[in-house]
Amino acid sequence: MTRVEKYLSTVKPYPKQEEFFTANTSRIAYGGARGGGKSWAMRTKFILLALSHKGIQILLLRRTFPELRENHIIPLQKALLKIATYKESTKEFIFKNGSRIKLGYCQNESDVLQYQGQAYEVIGMEEATQFTYMQYVALTESNRLSGNVRGFSPRMYFTCNPGGVGHEWVKRLFIDRNYTEGERKEDYTFVPSTVYDNEYLISQNPEYVRTLEALPPLRRKAMLYGDWDAFEGQYFPEFSREKNVCTPFEIPDDWNRFIAFDYGLDMTACLWFAYPQNRECIYVYRELYRPSLILSEAAKEIVRMTGDEKIRWAVASPDLGGRRQDSGKTGFDILSSSGLSGVLAANNSRIAGWRMIRELLRENEEGQIRLKFFENCLNIIRTLPRLTFDERVPEDVSSTPHELTHAPDALRYGVMSLGFMPGDAPRKREVFSDPYAEFREVKRESYLKFLTS
Predict the structure, then answer these.
(1) CATH class of the domain comprising 3-223
(2) 345 pairs with which residues across the strands?
(3) What's the Cα-to-Cα distance from 241 to each of 32, 129, 238, rounded to whole Å?
(4) Dihedral class, residue 292 (left if φ above 0, else alpha if ψ from -120 to 50, else beta)
(5) What is the distance between the alpha carbons of residues 368 and 425, in angstroms, rounded to a whole number?
(6) How many CB atoms lie within 10 A of CB 244?
(7) Residue 303 burial by CB count (10 A; 0-12/13-18/19+): exposed, middle or buried?
(8) Strand segments (E) across 56-99
Protein backbone atom coordinates (compact mmCIF):
# COMPACT_ATOMS: atom_id res chain seq x y z
CA MET A 1 0.00 0.00 0.00
CA THR A 2 1.43 3.40 -1.01
CA ARG A 3 1.60 6.33 1.39
CA VAL A 4 -1.27 8.00 -0.49
CA GLU A 5 -3.44 4.89 -0.34
CA LYS A 6 -2.66 4.46 3.34
CA TYR A 7 -3.62 8.03 4.12
CA LEU A 8 -6.77 7.84 1.97
CA SER A 9 -7.88 4.85 4.00
CA THR A 10 -8.01 7.11 7.07
CA VAL A 11 -10.21 9.85 5.56
CA LYS A 12 -13.75 9.85 4.24
CA PRO A 13 -14.70 12.97 2.25
CA TYR A 14 -18.32 13.88 1.58
CA PRO A 15 -19.49 14.15 -2.06
CA LYS A 16 -18.92 17.92 -2.24
CA GLN A 17 -15.45 17.52 -0.77
CA GLU A 18 -14.69 14.81 -3.32
CA GLU A 19 -15.74 17.24 -6.03
CA PHE A 20 -13.29 19.77 -4.61
CA PHE A 21 -10.53 17.13 -4.45
CA THR A 22 -10.95 16.06 -8.09
CA ALA A 23 -11.27 19.51 -9.70
CA ASN A 24 -8.22 20.26 -11.84
CA THR A 25 -8.56 23.84 -13.08
CA SER A 26 -5.98 26.42 -12.06
CA ARG A 27 -8.35 28.22 -9.62
CA ILE A 28 -10.63 26.11 -7.40
CA ALA A 29 -12.92 27.50 -4.70
CA TYR A 30 -15.00 25.59 -2.16
CA GLY A 31 -17.71 26.67 0.25
CA GLY A 32 -20.17 29.53 0.24
CA ALA A 33 -21.94 28.72 3.52
CA ARG A 34 -20.72 27.93 7.01
CA GLY A 35 -20.28 24.38 8.25
CA GLY A 36 -19.47 22.73 4.93
CA GLY A 37 -16.16 21.27 6.09
CA LYS A 38 -13.98 23.75 4.22
CA SER A 39 -10.85 23.76 6.40
CA TRP A 40 -10.72 19.97 6.59
CA ALA A 41 -11.09 19.74 2.82
CA MET A 42 -8.25 22.20 2.22
CA ARG A 43 -5.87 20.46 4.67
CA THR A 44 -6.65 17.01 3.36
CA LYS A 45 -6.23 18.02 -0.28
CA PHE A 46 -2.84 19.55 0.48
CA ILE A 47 -1.67 16.43 2.36
CA LEU A 48 -2.67 14.27 -0.61
CA LEU A 49 -0.82 16.57 -3.01
CA ALA A 50 2.30 16.51 -0.82
CA LEU A 51 2.25 12.70 -0.65
CA SER A 52 1.57 12.32 -4.37
CA HIS A 53 4.08 14.77 -5.88
CA LYS A 54 7.69 14.49 -4.79
CA GLY A 55 9.20 17.87 -3.93
CA ILE A 56 6.03 19.90 -4.38
CA GLN A 57 5.98 23.29 -2.63
CA ILE A 58 2.65 24.25 -1.02
CA LEU A 59 1.70 27.50 0.72
CA LEU A 60 -1.37 27.59 3.01
CA LEU A 61 -2.54 30.99 4.28
CA ARG A 62 -5.01 32.45 6.75
CA ARG A 63 -5.48 36.14 7.43
CA THR A 64 -4.28 36.07 11.07
CA PHE A 65 -1.91 33.84 13.05
CA PRO A 66 -4.45 32.78 15.74
CA GLU A 67 -6.74 31.53 12.95
CA LEU A 68 -3.82 29.78 11.27
CA ARG A 69 -2.78 28.04 14.47
CA GLU A 70 -6.25 26.86 15.50
CA ASN A 71 -7.55 25.90 12.07
CA HIS A 72 -4.45 24.36 10.52
CA ILE A 73 -1.22 24.08 12.54
CA ILE A 74 -2.70 22.07 15.39
CA PRO A 75 -4.91 19.82 13.19
CA LEU A 76 -2.01 19.21 10.77
CA GLN A 77 0.32 18.25 13.63
CA LYS A 78 -2.16 15.54 14.60
CA ALA A 79 -2.88 14.40 11.03
CA LEU A 80 0.80 14.28 9.98
CA LEU A 81 2.22 12.57 13.05
CA LYS A 82 4.91 10.16 11.80
CA ILE A 83 4.19 11.31 8.22
CA ALA A 84 5.92 14.73 8.14
CA THR A 85 8.18 16.78 10.39
CA TYR A 86 6.97 20.15 11.64
CA LYS A 87 9.47 23.03 12.01
CA GLU A 88 8.11 25.58 14.44
CA SER A 89 10.63 28.30 13.49
CA THR A 90 9.56 28.34 9.84
CA LYS A 91 6.03 26.97 10.34
CA GLU A 92 6.31 24.27 7.72
CA PHE A 93 5.78 20.55 7.41
CA ILE A 94 8.56 18.64 5.61
CA PHE A 95 7.68 15.29 4.05
CA LYS A 96 10.10 12.41 3.46
CA ASN A 97 9.77 12.85 -0.32
CA GLY A 98 10.93 16.46 -0.12
CA SER A 99 7.46 17.99 -0.35
CA ARG A 100 6.65 20.92 1.89
CA ILE A 101 3.53 22.59 3.28
CA LYS A 102 4.42 26.11 4.36
CA LEU A 103 1.93 27.94 6.59
CA GLY A 104 1.61 31.70 6.73
CA TYR A 105 -0.67 34.64 7.46
CA CYS A 106 -1.24 38.14 6.00
CA GLN A 107 -2.78 40.24 8.74
CA ASN A 108 -1.57 43.49 7.17
CA GLU A 109 -1.92 44.44 3.52
CA SER A 110 1.83 44.43 2.96
CA ASP A 111 2.45 41.06 4.67
CA VAL A 112 1.86 39.32 1.37
CA LEU A 113 5.02 40.88 -0.04
CA GLN A 114 7.14 38.41 1.95
CA TYR A 115 6.15 35.73 -0.58
CA GLN A 116 7.27 37.69 -3.64
CA GLY A 117 10.14 36.05 -5.45
CA GLN A 118 9.23 32.64 -4.05
CA ALA A 119 7.68 29.81 -6.03
CA TYR A 120 4.87 27.51 -4.92
CA GLU A 121 3.16 25.01 -7.18
CA VAL A 122 0.09 25.20 -4.93
CA ILE A 123 -1.24 28.14 -2.91
CA GLY A 124 -4.27 27.92 -0.64
CA MET A 125 -6.20 30.94 0.67
CA GLU A 126 -8.39 29.89 3.59
CA GLU A 127 -11.40 32.20 4.06
CA ALA A 128 -10.39 33.99 0.87
CA THR A 129 -12.95 36.77 1.34
CA GLN A 130 -10.85 38.01 4.28
CA PHE A 131 -7.99 38.83 1.88
CA THR A 132 -7.86 41.92 -0.30
CA TYR A 133 -7.73 41.77 -4.08
CA MET A 134 -4.20 43.20 -4.00
CA GLN A 135 -3.09 40.33 -1.77
CA TYR A 136 -4.67 37.80 -4.11
CA VAL A 137 -2.99 39.31 -7.18
CA ALA A 138 0.39 39.41 -5.41
CA LEU A 139 0.07 35.72 -4.54
CA THR A 140 -0.71 34.75 -8.13
CA GLU A 141 2.80 35.95 -9.03
CA SER A 142 4.26 33.31 -6.71
CA ASN A 143 2.06 30.49 -8.05
CA ARG A 144 4.58 28.91 -10.40
CA LEU A 145 6.85 25.90 -10.77
CA SER A 146 9.61 25.70 -8.19
CA GLY A 147 11.85 23.47 -10.28
CA ASN A 148 11.32 20.48 -7.99
CA VAL A 149 8.24 19.00 -9.72
CA ARG A 150 7.63 17.78 -13.23
CA GLY A 151 4.31 17.25 -14.97
CA PHE A 152 2.31 19.38 -12.55
CA SER A 153 0.30 22.51 -13.41
CA PRO A 154 0.42 25.24 -10.73
CA ARG A 155 -2.92 25.99 -9.15
CA MET A 156 -4.61 27.91 -6.33
CA TYR A 157 -7.27 26.70 -3.91
CA PHE A 158 -9.74 28.88 -1.99
CA THR A 159 -12.32 28.37 0.72
CA CYS A 160 -14.80 31.15 1.33
CA ASN A 161 -18.00 32.52 2.82
CA PRO A 162 -19.91 35.61 1.62
CA GLY A 163 -18.87 38.89 3.23
CA GLY A 164 -15.53 40.36 4.18
CA VAL A 165 -13.10 42.72 2.51
CA GLY A 166 -12.57 40.31 -0.39
CA HIS A 167 -16.24 39.57 -1.07
CA GLU A 168 -16.28 41.41 -4.40
CA TRP A 169 -13.28 39.83 -6.09
CA VAL A 170 -14.17 36.30 -4.97
CA LYS A 171 -17.78 36.79 -6.10
CA ARG A 172 -16.71 38.23 -9.45
CA LEU A 173 -14.39 35.35 -10.26
CA PHE A 174 -16.31 32.36 -8.92
CA ILE A 175 -19.98 33.36 -8.65
CA ASP A 176 -20.62 36.04 -11.28
CA ARG A 177 -17.92 34.57 -13.55
CA ASN A 178 -17.37 38.05 -14.96
CA TYR A 179 -13.84 38.05 -16.33
CA THR A 180 -11.52 40.79 -17.49
CA GLU A 181 -8.79 40.67 -20.09
CA GLY A 182 -6.28 37.93 -19.37
CA GLU A 183 -8.76 35.87 -17.29
CA ARG A 184 -10.31 32.72 -18.76
CA LYS A 185 -13.56 31.25 -17.46
CA GLU A 186 -12.31 27.71 -17.99
CA ASP A 187 -9.65 28.30 -15.31
CA TYR A 188 -12.17 28.80 -12.51
CA THR A 189 -14.18 26.16 -10.64
CA PHE A 190 -16.55 26.78 -7.73
CA VAL A 191 -17.84 23.90 -5.60
CA PRO A 192 -20.74 25.15 -3.43
CA SER A 193 -21.40 23.51 -0.09
CA THR A 194 -23.57 24.09 2.96
CA VAL A 195 -23.81 22.69 6.45
CA TYR A 196 -26.34 20.18 5.10
CA ASP A 197 -23.52 18.57 3.10
CA ASN A 198 -21.57 17.91 6.30
CA GLU A 199 -22.98 14.64 7.64
CA TYR A 200 -20.70 14.64 10.67
CA LEU A 201 -21.76 18.12 11.83
CA ILE A 202 -25.43 17.39 11.31
CA SER A 203 -25.28 14.22 13.38
CA GLN A 204 -22.78 15.29 16.04
CA ASN A 205 -23.57 18.99 16.45
CA PRO A 206 -27.19 19.68 15.43
CA GLU A 207 -27.22 22.70 17.75
CA TYR A 208 -24.86 24.50 15.34
CA VAL A 209 -27.23 23.84 12.45
CA ARG A 210 -30.12 25.26 14.46
CA THR A 211 -27.98 28.31 15.31
CA LEU A 212 -27.48 29.01 11.61
CA GLU A 213 -31.18 28.47 10.92
CA ALA A 214 -32.07 31.02 13.63
CA LEU A 215 -29.92 33.85 12.22
CA PRO A 216 -31.63 37.07 11.03
CA PRO A 217 -33.03 36.66 7.48
CA LEU A 218 -30.23 38.28 5.45
CA ARG A 219 -27.46 36.82 7.60
CA ARG A 220 -29.16 33.43 7.36
CA LYS A 221 -29.27 33.61 3.55
CA ALA A 222 -25.52 34.24 3.44
CA MET A 223 -24.27 31.92 6.18
CA LEU A 224 -26.73 29.01 5.97
CA TYR A 225 -27.40 28.93 2.24
CA GLY A 226 -24.28 30.63 0.88
CA ASP A 227 -26.18 33.43 -0.86
CA TRP A 228 -23.55 35.86 -2.19
CA ASP A 229 -26.15 38.54 -2.88
CA ALA A 230 -27.40 38.90 0.71
CA PHE A 231 -26.02 41.57 3.03
CA GLU A 232 -27.25 44.11 5.58
CA GLY A 233 -28.57 47.33 4.05
CA GLN A 234 -29.40 45.61 0.76
CA TYR A 235 -32.19 47.39 -1.14
CA PHE A 236 -33.42 44.31 -3.00
CA PRO A 237 -33.19 41.33 -0.62
CA GLU A 238 -35.92 39.78 -2.81
CA PHE A 239 -33.38 39.12 -5.55
CA SER A 240 -32.50 35.43 -5.81
CA ARG A 241 -30.15 33.92 -8.37
CA GLU A 242 -31.99 30.66 -8.09
CA LYS A 243 -35.37 32.23 -8.90
CA ASN A 244 -34.58 35.39 -10.89
CA VAL A 245 -31.77 34.16 -13.16
CA CYS A 246 -32.43 31.64 -15.91
CA THR A 247 -30.67 29.86 -18.76
CA PRO A 248 -31.07 31.71 -22.08
CA PHE A 249 -33.63 30.30 -24.50
CA GLU A 250 -34.83 31.22 -27.98
CA ILE A 251 -37.49 33.89 -27.64
CA PRO A 252 -40.63 33.10 -29.68
CA ASP A 253 -41.40 35.42 -32.59
CA ASP A 254 -44.79 36.42 -31.17
CA TRP A 255 -43.33 37.77 -27.93
CA ASN A 256 -43.16 41.53 -27.40
CA ARG A 257 -39.73 43.14 -27.18
CA PHE A 258 -38.59 46.56 -26.05
CA ILE A 259 -35.44 48.41 -25.05
CA ALA A 260 -34.49 50.70 -22.15
CA PHE A 261 -31.15 52.35 -21.56
CA ASP A 262 -29.34 54.72 -19.26
CA TYR A 263 -26.70 56.90 -20.86
CA GLY A 264 -23.71 58.70 -19.42
CA LEU A 265 -20.22 59.34 -20.67
CA ASP A 266 -18.94 57.09 -17.90
CA MET A 267 -21.24 54.20 -18.86
CA THR A 268 -23.90 53.18 -21.36
CA ALA A 269 -26.22 50.54 -19.92
CA CYS A 270 -28.86 49.18 -22.28
CA LEU A 271 -31.23 46.29 -21.60
CA TRP A 272 -33.38 44.30 -24.02
CA PHE A 273 -36.71 43.02 -22.64
CA ALA A 274 -39.22 40.41 -23.87
CA TYR A 275 -42.53 39.10 -22.59
CA PRO A 276 -45.19 36.65 -23.85
CA GLN A 277 -48.72 37.61 -24.90
CA ASN A 278 -50.13 36.46 -21.56
CA ARG A 279 -47.74 38.93 -19.85
CA GLU A 280 -47.02 36.55 -16.97
CA CYS A 281 -43.32 37.42 -16.79
CA ILE A 282 -40.80 39.77 -18.40
CA TYR A 283 -37.30 38.67 -19.30
CA VAL A 284 -34.14 40.73 -19.65
CA TYR A 285 -32.38 38.80 -22.38
CA ARG A 286 -29.47 40.99 -23.50
CA GLU A 287 -27.39 43.86 -22.18
CA LEU A 288 -24.89 46.44 -23.40
CA TYR A 289 -22.63 47.73 -20.65
CA ARG A 290 -19.77 49.80 -21.96
CA PRO A 291 -17.90 52.90 -20.74
CA SER A 292 -16.67 55.93 -22.66
CA LEU A 293 -19.10 55.78 -25.59
CA ILE A 294 -20.25 59.08 -27.04
CA LEU A 295 -24.01 59.16 -27.61
CA SER A 296 -23.84 58.56 -31.37
CA GLU A 297 -21.57 55.54 -30.82
CA ALA A 298 -23.96 54.15 -28.20
CA ALA A 299 -26.89 54.48 -30.63
CA LYS A 300 -25.05 52.68 -33.42
CA GLU A 301 -24.00 49.86 -31.09
CA ILE A 302 -27.59 49.39 -29.87
CA VAL A 303 -28.80 49.21 -33.49
CA ARG A 304 -26.07 46.70 -34.34
CA MET A 305 -26.85 44.45 -31.37
CA THR A 306 -30.59 44.57 -32.08
CA GLY A 307 -30.21 43.43 -35.67
CA ASP A 308 -33.49 42.44 -37.34
CA GLU A 309 -35.46 41.97 -34.13
CA LYS A 310 -38.82 43.70 -34.02
CA ILE A 311 -38.70 46.05 -31.06
CA ARG A 312 -42.03 47.62 -30.09
CA TRP A 313 -40.64 50.63 -28.24
CA ALA A 314 -37.52 52.11 -26.66
CA VAL A 315 -37.02 54.46 -23.73
CA ALA A 316 -33.90 56.23 -22.49
CA SER A 317 -32.63 58.57 -19.82
CA PRO A 318 -35.01 61.56 -19.69
CA ASP A 319 -32.12 64.00 -19.38
CA LEU A 320 -31.35 63.34 -23.05
CA GLY A 321 -34.17 65.78 -23.78
CA GLY A 322 -31.95 68.73 -22.89
CA ARG A 323 -30.41 70.67 -25.76
CA ARG A 324 -26.64 70.72 -26.21
CA GLN A 325 -25.11 74.18 -26.15
CA ASP A 326 -22.71 73.40 -28.97
CA SER A 327 -25.27 72.09 -31.46
CA GLY A 328 -28.68 73.09 -30.16
CA LYS A 329 -29.76 69.45 -30.55
CA THR A 330 -31.22 67.23 -27.88
CA GLY A 331 -29.81 63.85 -27.04
CA PHE A 332 -32.84 62.28 -28.73
CA ASP A 333 -32.02 64.23 -31.91
CA ILE A 334 -28.51 62.75 -31.83
CA LEU A 335 -29.91 59.25 -31.31
CA SER A 336 -32.19 59.72 -34.31
CA SER A 337 -29.44 61.04 -36.59
CA SER A 338 -27.27 58.09 -35.54
CA GLY A 339 -29.85 55.53 -36.62
CA LEU A 340 -31.90 55.10 -33.43
CA SER A 341 -35.14 56.97 -34.11
CA GLY A 342 -38.30 57.13 -32.04
CA VAL A 343 -36.73 56.72 -28.59
CA LEU A 344 -38.88 58.22 -25.82
CA ALA A 345 -37.93 59.85 -22.54
CA ALA A 346 -38.33 57.28 -19.77
CA ASN A 347 -40.54 57.74 -16.73
CA ASN A 348 -38.02 58.74 -14.06
CA SER A 349 -40.18 58.08 -11.00
CA ARG A 350 -37.54 56.59 -8.76
CA ILE A 351 -39.35 55.27 -5.71
CA ALA A 352 -42.33 54.03 -7.72
CA GLY A 353 -39.94 52.33 -10.14
CA TRP A 354 -37.94 50.62 -7.40
CA ARG A 355 -41.16 49.42 -5.77
CA MET A 356 -42.31 47.90 -9.04
CA ILE A 357 -39.01 46.07 -9.45
CA ARG A 358 -39.29 44.77 -5.89
CA GLU A 359 -42.77 43.41 -6.58
CA LEU A 360 -41.63 41.72 -9.77
CA LEU A 361 -38.61 40.08 -8.12
CA ARG A 362 -40.65 38.34 -5.43
CA GLU A 363 -43.27 35.68 -5.91
CA ASN A 364 -46.86 36.86 -6.30
CA GLU A 365 -49.85 35.19 -4.66
CA GLU A 366 -49.83 32.47 -7.32
CA GLY A 367 -46.17 31.72 -6.65
CA GLN A 368 -45.01 33.29 -9.93
CA ILE A 369 -41.69 35.07 -10.40
CA ARG A 370 -42.43 37.89 -12.82
CA LEU A 371 -38.96 39.28 -13.58
CA LYS A 372 -36.11 37.08 -14.80
CA PHE A 373 -32.68 37.72 -16.26
CA PHE A 374 -30.83 35.60 -18.79
CA GLU A 375 -27.60 34.51 -17.15
CA ASN A 376 -25.58 36.24 -19.89
CA CYS A 377 -26.74 39.64 -18.56
CA LEU A 378 -23.81 39.76 -16.16
CA ASN A 379 -23.88 43.40 -15.10
CA ILE A 380 -27.53 43.82 -14.18
CA ILE A 381 -27.25 40.54 -12.24
CA ARG A 382 -24.10 41.83 -10.56
CA THR A 383 -25.24 45.36 -9.70
CA LEU A 384 -28.93 45.01 -8.80
CA PRO A 385 -28.44 43.00 -5.58
CA ARG A 386 -25.60 45.31 -4.49
CA LEU A 387 -27.78 48.44 -4.33
CA THR A 388 -28.23 49.91 -0.86
CA PHE A 389 -30.63 52.38 0.75
CA ASP A 390 -30.08 56.13 0.46
CA GLU A 391 -29.29 57.47 3.95
CA ARG A 392 -31.19 60.72 3.33
CA VAL A 393 -34.18 59.31 1.42
CA PRO A 394 -34.90 55.95 3.05
CA GLU A 395 -37.21 54.69 0.28
CA ASP A 396 -34.74 55.50 -2.49
CA VAL A 397 -31.61 53.75 -3.76
CA SER A 398 -28.24 55.22 -2.86
CA SER A 399 -26.46 56.89 -5.77
CA THR A 400 -23.10 55.61 -4.53
CA PRO A 401 -21.11 53.78 -5.67
CA HIS A 402 -22.26 55.38 -8.93
CA GLU A 403 -21.03 52.46 -11.06
CA LEU A 404 -23.73 50.26 -9.54
CA THR A 405 -26.64 52.46 -10.64
CA HIS A 406 -26.48 52.41 -14.46
CA ALA A 407 -27.95 49.00 -15.25
CA PRO A 408 -30.60 49.19 -12.46
CA ASP A 409 -31.68 52.61 -13.76
CA ALA A 410 -32.14 51.09 -17.22
CA LEU A 411 -34.17 48.29 -15.61
CA ARG A 412 -36.32 50.85 -13.80
CA TYR A 413 -36.98 52.76 -17.04
CA GLY A 414 -37.97 49.50 -18.70
CA VAL A 415 -40.48 48.25 -16.14
CA MET A 416 -42.02 51.73 -15.83
CA SER A 417 -42.63 51.81 -19.58
CA LEU A 418 -44.84 48.71 -19.47
CA GLY A 419 -48.15 50.24 -18.43
CA PHE A 420 -49.16 47.01 -16.67
CA MET A 421 -47.97 44.71 -13.90
CA PRO A 422 -46.75 41.36 -15.25
CA GLY A 423 -48.60 38.40 -13.79
CA ASP A 424 -51.80 40.34 -13.12
CA ALA A 425 -54.86 38.89 -14.84
CA PRO A 426 -56.09 41.13 -17.70
CA ARG A 427 -59.34 42.93 -16.99
CA LYS A 428 -62.43 41.92 -18.96
CA ARG A 429 -62.61 43.47 -22.43
CA GLU A 430 -59.01 44.56 -22.09
CA VAL A 431 -57.32 44.52 -25.46
CA PHE A 432 -53.53 44.49 -25.51
CA SER A 433 -52.18 47.73 -26.88
CA ASP A 434 -48.78 49.21 -27.40
CA PRO A 435 -48.25 51.91 -24.71
CA TYR A 436 -46.58 54.06 -27.39
CA ALA A 437 -49.09 53.44 -30.19
CA GLU A 438 -50.27 57.07 -30.22
CA PHE A 439 -46.71 58.31 -30.45
CA ARG A 440 -45.97 55.96 -33.31
CA GLU A 441 -48.98 57.14 -35.28
CA VAL A 442 -47.44 60.61 -35.25
CA LYS A 443 -43.84 59.51 -35.82
CA ARG A 444 -44.43 56.42 -37.94
CA GLU A 445 -42.48 57.62 -40.95
CA SER A 446 -39.33 58.32 -38.96
CA TYR A 447 -39.52 55.18 -36.85
CA LEU A 448 -36.82 52.64 -37.65
CA LYS A 449 -37.70 49.25 -39.03
CA PHE A 450 -36.29 47.59 -35.90
CA LEU A 451 -38.56 49.73 -33.71
CA THR A 452 -41.79 48.91 -35.53
CA SER A 453 -44.22 46.19 -34.63
Answers:
(1) alpha beta
(2) 316
(3) 14, 20, 10
(4) left
(5) 12
(6) 22
(7) middle
(8) 57-62, 84-87, 92-95
Name which of 237, 235, 433 is nearest 353 in CA terms: 235
Residue type, 294: I
Give the Cβ contact number of residue 212 at 10 Å: 18
432 pLDDT higher than 60? no
Domain ranges of the chain: 3-223, 246-451
Residues near 10 by beta carbon (within 8 Å), at least 6 away in sequence: none
pLDDT band at 231 (very low <50, low <70, confident <90, very high): confident
Helix (H) / strand (E) containing 289: strand 282-290
3-state class percentages of the chain: helix first, strand second, coil last, to nearest 5: 40, 20, 40
- The mean per-residue pLDDT over the stretch 54-75 comes to 94
- DSSP conformation class of 451: G
| CATH class of the domain at 246-451 | alpha beta
Length of the chain: 453
